[in-house]
Amino acid sequence: MDDTLATPLSPGAATVPPRKHPRRRTRVFAALRRVLVAPGFVLAIWVANLLAAKLLAGPGRAAARAGMRDWTWFDDGHRIRAVVELLADEPAIAAAISSSVVSAAVVAGIFSLLAAPAILTRLDGQRSLAWIVGAVGRELPAMLVQTGYSLVIRAVCLGLAGACAAGLGPRALPLILLLVSFPVLALDRARAAVVLDDARPYHPMTMLRAVGHVALRPLWWLSGTVIETLKLGVVIAALLLLIEAGPSPISIWVARAAGLAAVILSLWRVALAVEDRGANAP
């Protein structure tokens, strides 16, 4: 071996500083493009949501039909008020609907845990069905642990949001939306770090780094908040339309289309974390 290659640098010799990688900017529409190039995957999630909604709505629908007896719907112009009166007069209907809502929340949480590795893997460009499904089995324990850590962040943010609402009233709505969305975005980042960047799957620092990662990127935080707000607005508007217009085929399909829009918006939010992968990875 040439001895000149092993000659140590003298104390006064100039050294080349390590290269600094520029911080990547949040590319909001590049994240949306990741969703739009996977239409089959989007439709599969939408159909799964429709089937789950149909199953969970069964008890509430049966109780409502029993409570309305010979009536099929409400008269025009008084539907929302009539729904409120029906719930007040028929506690069994209110209980059945409440049970359906709680069940839907539980199912949504379980689905989020199961689907997160598959969603992240597909949005990262992986097309192999075997690899996508295998990601669920490989990463499910880590998803459960990181979700548990995120509950602490969520509790803190909800407490701050409640304090803002109590102190500022309606003027605090933008701040409340930012605080409520923050733990969701941080969990997206932590999950992406585990699934795509080989971060430590069970270590709390993975979640803490994700918190700092989102907090230092205001465009990501703001974009995610806007996306979550749009999703909530779409769902509420579809529900109000269904109540006002009645269970006609058109209104039902409008509600289903709103569900598809909500799926796309949810995937767009997750794609923000995928698009940012490799940048300051934990």
Automatic annotation (TrEMBL):
Source taxonomy: Bacteria, Pseudomonadati, Myxococcota, Polyangia, Nannocystales
Q: Give the organism, scientific name.
A: Enhygromyxa salina
Query: Could you list the residue ranges that cross the membrane?
Result: 28-48, 92-116, 151-168, 219-243, 250-268
Where does the record place the region Disordered? 1-21
Keywords on record: Membrane, Transmembrane, Transmembrane helix
Keyword Transmembrane helix carried by entry: yes
Q: What is this protein called?
A: Uncharacterized protein
